[in-house]
Specification:
about 300 residues; alpha+beta; two-stranded parallel ribbon; 9 helices; about 35% helix
Length: about 300
Amino acid sequence: MKMKNTKSAKLGAKVSKKKKTSTSSKKTISDRVLKFVKSVEDASVKAQYEALMGVGRPVDIALASYTDVLKEGAKVALAGLGTSIVKEGADLKLQVSRIAMRPFADPDFSVVEARKVPAKYGKAGYDGFGSVRFCPVPHPDTGADMIAMDTVVLYSGSPPPSRPVRRRRRAAIGDGVDHAATVTFTLNDLAAVKAALASMFYPPLARLPNGDPFEDEGQHFAQGSKPAERALMALMCRSQLPAKKMLNGFGAGKSVIDGVQGHLKYLVDQRCKGTPSVIHQDLVPPFWFGELHRLGLDHLSVPTIRLR
């Protein structure tokens, strides 16, 4: 595996020292997206955006763009870490793998490739779960807006080393994935655990999560880059990713993720009960095509998210 050498990143270490402002006066990135797309001018458009963010009447299934719903799912996963995955005295490990990075003009991703990564941990004998993650990233040389698809894996265990297998054919050099160094912490380090779950379940829309190993020191988005536009691209990607395809459990983590999926389904069903659908899952890509045309964002393309 190709490893990215970076300085030790402590999860949850990048805590802002600025004075906290009142939540009533601070606009969220979701609010800024709604303003950016001029949704206030059309109530039906606003309702569709809110549906794709899981704020109002959501699409009938849980999507990776439902931040508030996924926060509740993360709580179920947190409980499962202590009861099913982490054995007494064992550490937790987090590894981020960058599967692909694409420009905003050509965002084409295979979720199938991203889901192959957690399966390898399960075959090695670990317990845990992985999450497919879409995040805006700056181009390492120019700072231009890019969108990345990562797999974030949280796991535990000490499986016995596997016996080497003699192969007649020469083994492949690598899997083409950029694997960051593993970060280790304990279940008692609640700040690190919550930061890890946040990076998996509800990463920020306009930037990389705090402590992300692929964020090189001094790297930043190019001058003139629009956070709302980056958030729109991330939202377009995540709204095409069902939570069932986003999360993948292995070992003892399978039952934990089953519990998470069940809770997400319950929450979405409750929000959908007794109210007519605003937008169907199959109509999400056409909605985005129409929106980019309406907004005149010709330099952006609707992401192709291949689920199989």
